[in-house]
Design goal:
10% strand, 133 residues, 5 helices, 58% helix, three-stranded mixed beta sheet, mainly alpha
């Protein structure tokens, strides 16, 4: 038969893989650029986001540091907002943006935002593709 076999699923996988690589490059590039821009507050992202959550009545969320670069995430099952090493103690525009984004997920849980439930259910499945990319 044919010495080489072409699997047509590559037509679906390769564009998705390339899109994932491009998106990750864009995120890293923007974070790198804006991590050099300091805020006027001069306070670290961990303090700012804790204040933000408390002022909006979300006192049960614990803000903590996790290892890695841009490994920030909100865990609704443990009520923890996990900020990566390069975000936690930084007072850059990029760090505050990332921290505020994650705090938004905590606020969505407090408000019982229905799409967050879908997102929480989809995260394990999406992480597989994300890690492969």
């Amino acid at each position: 038969m044919y010495p080489y076999y072409f699997d047509w699923t590559y037509i679906l996988i390769i564009p998705g893989l390339l899109l994932g690589i491009w998106a990750q490059y864009q995120v890293n590039s923007a974070f790198s650029r804006y991590s050099r821009v300091q805020t006027r507050l001069g306070r670290p992202a961990c303090e700012v986001v804790s204040d933000l959550l408390q002022r909006n009545g979300n006192n049960q969320v614990v803000v903590q540091r996790v290892s890695g670069n841009l490994t920030d995430f909100y865990d609704p099952s443990k009520e923890t907002l996990n900020l990566s090493e390069n975000v936690y103690a930084s007072s850059s525009v990029a760090a505050l943006g990332v921290a505020a984004h994650e705090a938004g997920h905590a606020m969505q849980k407090r408000d019982n935002y229905a799409p967050l439930k879908f997102r929480s259910a989809a995260v394990p499945v999406v992480n597989i593709g994300s890690n492969m990319a």
